[in-house]
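batch_manifest entry 22 of 60
target: 3',5'-cyclic-nucleotide phosphodiesterase
source organism: Ectothiorhodospira haloalkaliphila
requested by: lab member K.T.
priority: normal
notes from requester: please return tokens only, no post-processing; we will run our own comparison against the previous entry in this batch. if the run fails, retry once and flag.
--- input ---
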Amino acid sequence: MEIKVLGCSGGIGAGRRTSALLVDDDILIDCGTGVADLSLEAMARLRHVFITHTHLDHIACLPLLVDTLFSRLQSRPLVIHTRSDCMRIIHHHIFNWQIWPDFFELPERERPVVRFEEMDAARPLDIEGRRVHMLPATHTVPAVGYRVEDDRGAFAFTGDTTSNDDLWTALNDHAGLDLLMVECAFPESERDLGRRAGHYCPSLLAQDLVKLRHRPRVGISHLKPGAESETFEDLRRRLPERDLVRLGSGDVFKI
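--- output ---
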């Protein structure tokens, strides 16, 4: 598998793109502003979008992506995978004819260009040899993470979450993990705000990483603009034994 970071920032600004990962050339995990940097040809190769949760920085490009690909999707719809409650939020608040056309009914209700498939926490989804598992997350809205594996290895993306024993238990239930992409949105100076917002800060993430029995490379995402270096360096001091990398748009990992 090849994983390309299209966006991983906790905000926008020069060089900053919000959450989106491209797996090989046909799967997206989240659909933040990083998707806008794909060429039209690259967008046309997309077949599946896995959504972690419905906050705007993770779905901002979803309605624009569908609109851009509308004519191409009439023969093969784009499949959106997430929890049923997340999909209801997207349908009600985005594809509602007021914010954006309801592409679940276009060009016709019987053959829409977008199709929804509910994820089952107990059953991984197989997409041409890549198995996608849903992971628990704790956030201010319904949220999940994802673990993706093939016969060579596995990576996981937490999406947005704060301290959550179930996440680490789920990761430990599998035999291995090569790459973990985990958020650490807030600097330690804003620990209380981070907890209320459902995000990690360095001390909370350092405490939780001890629970992980695997030793993957750990990519840090969702750093808040202006505090990126402060937060990442704090993490490195707290976790000197871990292989940490500060994620950036354009980073590519091969599993």
